[in-house]
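Posting this for the archive.
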Amino acid sequence: MGTVFSFAVRDPAPGTEAALRRIAGRLHEIDAVFSPYRSDSDVSRLDRGELALGGCHPDVAEVLARCREVAAETDGWFTDRPAGRLDPSGWVKGWAVEEASRMLRAAGSADHVVSGGGDVQTAGGPWRVGIADPLNPGALAATVTGHDLAVATSGTAERGPHIIDPHTGRPATGLASLTLVGRGLARTDAWATAAFAMGPARALAWATRHPAVEALAITPDGTRHRTPGFPTA
């Protein structure tokens, strides 16, 4: 999916290396099914009409159902068709990270971090997670700390303006970055994508109303806004 996954395990057990090999295999499977960069992925073939939903990997129908849920939860600010093409990556990346963490837990690890493309799922803790400053490469804008955290950031620093406002079809530019802190990364990451598209005022208002997340928004001029419960270290 055009990104890198990494693992930090504080409580390795004899089966941890084997579990990590299984997780790597699962991540490659998810990539093969969902990557919009691969012309032979189920998602790409479904989008081109070469494959019916019933002929896709069973995960595809489940993922598209979750995307519809997130679209409803964010009043239409999330879409699995950015720029008009089927691409559920806004759900899949966070879900893949959370799936990897679930598999580590099943293998006996209760204290670890899985990171995918800079978005993080922690288990146990406390863990400290740095949030990149989108305007100062190599610097941190904030650090959050806690147990069993999901930390997801959407922004323009790495890939430029690439998050589409589903209401206009154009890239969202009102924020430099938007970080949400929650519990499960699949939804937290999808919500972060949607909230970034909302722009600063709507994003902060939405996050403030939402009991499951806290938010840090950074505008292109460097102004920072936090929800009241944002867990800074």
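The helical segments are 16-34, 42-47, 58-73, 89-106, 185-198, 200-209. Strands lie at 5-9, 112-116, 119-123, 127-132, 140-146, 150-155, 177-182, 214-218, 224-226.
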